[in-house]
Specification:
Elements: H1 2-8, H2 23-29, H3 48-73
Helix pairs in contact: 2-3
Length: about 80
């Protein structure tokens, strides 16, 4: 994965995410950025920003599932 990330030179992707298989890394690869909220909260109380972040997580996860679906179903 590291070599693929280096070849693609993904815009705005932090170097520490190169080669990783985190949802954040795939968000950059799929151009569906997760956002920063999860890094800056203690998750103690609900907020609209928290809700928006969770919705964005679902969007990234859905896009990731759709990306890998052909590989999993043999349609590729």
């Amino acid at each position: 994965m590291m070599e693929i990330d280096k070849k693609r030179n993904i815009a705005r992707m932090p170097l520490q995410l190169y080669g990783r298989h985190s949802l954040e890394s795939y968000g950059y690869r799929l151009q569906e950025y997760k956002g920063e909220f999860g890094k800056t909260t203690d998750w103690q109380e609900w907020s609209q920003e928290m809700q928006d972040y969770c919705v964005q997580d679902v969007k990234v996860t859905t896009k990731l599932c759709e990306h890998f679906r052909p590989y999993l179903t043999g349609a590729r």
